[in-house]
Amino acid sequence: MNKREIKITLNGKEYSxxxxxxxxxxxxxxxxxxxxxxxxxxxxxxxxxxxxxxxxESHLSCLTLSPTVHGKNIQTLEGLESNKGLHPIQEAFISxxxxxxxxxxxxxxxxxxxxxxxxxxxxxxxIMEGLAGxxxxxxxxxxxIKAVGKAAQQMKERK
Amino acid sequence: MTRxxxxxxxxxxxxxxxxxxxxxxxxxxxTILAGGTxxxxxMKIGALQPKSIMSIQEIPDLDFLEYNEKxxxxxxxxxxxxxxxxxxxxxxxxTSLYEAARVxxxxxxxxxxxxxxxxxxxxxxxxxxxxxxSLDAQICxxxxxGVRWIAIDKFFTAYNETAIKPDEMVTEVRILPVxxxxxxxxxxxxxxxxxxxxxxxxxxxxxxNGNGVCKKARISLGAMAPTSMxxxxxxxxxxxxxxxxxxxxxxxxxxxxxxxxxxxxRSTAEYRKRxxxxxxxxxxxxxxxxxxx
Lengths: 159, 293
Description:
The complex is a heterodimer. By secondary structure, chain A is of the alpha+beta class. Helix content of chain A is 34%, strand content 17%. Chain A has 5 helices and 5 strands; from the N terminus they run ββαβββαααα. Chain A has a 5-stranded mixed sheet with strand order 2-1-5-3-4, covered by helices on one side. The mean pLDDT of chain A is 96. Chain B is α+β, with helices and mostly antiparallel strands. In chain B, 35% of the residues lie in helices and 24% in strands. Chain B has a 5-stranded antiparallel sheet with strand order 4-5-10-6-7. Chain B has a 4-stranded antiparallel sheet with strand order 11-12-13-14, with helices on both faces. The longest helix of chain B is centred in the C-terminal third of the chain and has 22 residues, at 269-290. The chains are: A alpha+beta, B alpha+beta. The A-B interface holds A 1-2, 4, 20-24, 26-27, 30, 40, 42-45, 48, 51, 57-60, 62-65, 67-68, 70, 111, 114-115, 129-130, 132-134 and B 1-12, 33, 36-37, 40-41, 44-45, 53, 55, 57-58, 82, 105-109, 111-112, 192-194.
């Protein structure tokens, strides 16, 4: 087959889509669904700008074939905000000034979300390892690591 | 987007029989897709242009990871690197594999990529492959005609080539339980821990009960030859002798003599040759220290 009907849950909503076999998940998100928070940068899995969660785990949408996500649960940055407002990670990125140009931020936040879902109290070293798949060319990472630490603290307090 | 994929025929069989039938019919024209991290990145840089792709993600029961005292560790072709890294049985019994899985790419790559994909690519710098080589893993391959087992030592035949025939696919990897008084270790040298290795090395040392004589030694090296390799002369040097730090130093020198490194963008042949002696000594020593636990 060259095309496939897929059913996915995207940011909590059910979608039925027809995708071309050679379209990546990133292309479907950005070009077909106009969900442009997830970024295209290197295209070969080196930079992490295209990170999304699939069934709760961080994946590179530029290296994910769209027909293979049939039946899966996908979360992008657009799905983080709820009626209670921004997600604690988003709030912490703002309060800690954890970005400059902002291009890597959606991927950084999705990787941070995977990390904080695995363990609520990461050490600085664990945060650095958890974000090792995301490249930032502006901040020098220091503020990002601080923001993720702060978000972890706030997520714990909210529980 | 500038890096996009060229069209191909796509298959997503829902059971193993169907998958083996597709392999029998299309052979070399079909590329198997498990995690996709390697296949898609190579397609995007033009290094791979498959006519068709077969995803094995929808075949049930290919994602398993079990340990028992009799069969040892069993893992499937859809078992993710991250799953292996997080499995307590791997960390306790096969420390070298745990240490390799931990640095086998970024968190996203480890969430997506599979251990079987790591060996099927037959890249000389593959981390999990290097550890599995020192653990004498056995690889089960299946075709429509039947099943056969391949020792990992015979699996990597050339750069990017394995002993798998076009109509076959890997369905299981097995590592026998390690004996008592065994230590294993893996160390990689790279710019950052998640980068591809400049050099990697794994070792396994088993001592005879009650004394310090080596019963079995394994030392493997990556990015030092066209495929991941065993340094068999170095192993022979250690086996049957009482292990000392000096003996392991000599084994490191010997291991380095057995390598045929090249210069590429990650390192030079000269550097690799020199540092491989130090690295294999270090990894042997670490494995030896762990025999005491």
